[in-house]
Here is the input.
Amino acid sequence: MFPQLFHLGRFPVPTYGVMAAVGLLAGLYVVVRLARREGLDPDQAWNLGLIAILSALIGAKIWFAAGHWEYYAQDPRRFFTLELLQAGGVFYGGLLAALIACVWYMRVTRMPVLKTGDVFAPGIALGHAFGRLGCFAAGCCYGRPTDAPWAVTFTNPLAAQVVGTPLNIHLHPTQIYESLVEFTNFFLLLWLLRHKKADGQVLGAYLFLYGLSRYFIDFFRGDLRATVFGGFMTATQLFSILLVIAGGTLWIHRAGPRGTATLAEAAR
Here is the structure.
């Protein structure tokens, strides 16, 4: 675990930030190439990707800070420090912010919503896979204690200081679980993009697959997160269920000829 890669003078370079940047650039590269192949304007895809990246970064940090509200509320200056930048982000917070910003941009530029979503889905999965490796380096999004032979042990005091990572305890490598899932999703979505029968199927598949996997991964998470229904499930699991429903519904509608026509008209 290496929360910081190196220093530029007195400025620390966080590993999470570097891995997130690698993931964002890789995802954007994939999106632009796929957009050109699918007949979309690559310049518009590039602009939309930048909007998605900026809004996702802001949303992920806001959701992360909200989840640790008591800590940051004690000293509001912590919202504007390198400490928050070095900490990880909450993917769902970034996804929600990116969706809102991207829908606005697509409406303004009249980009086809479902076809554009299909092109972006593999890029999102790839970028997220790299981002979770950054989480592993930072020590955030850590798992519950376990005796499993693949357990990991964090020892860097900086991780405990910034994100509260338990040190010297065998934990589930939940960051690696999610990264492997997203790398797998990336290749599955690339295959599906070539074999889809209607626009929206790739996006629906991604929402369903990620929501399903994230719901179960959350059972192994050990960091503190908001709960709902009296602690019955985490807010993330509730959001995961909504993603599964949305993705499954989109896939089913796009698989049928009548649903295909209806949603195609709505997406124009």
Notes: Confidence is low (pLDDT under 50) at residues 258-268. The first strand starts at residue 4 and ends at 8.
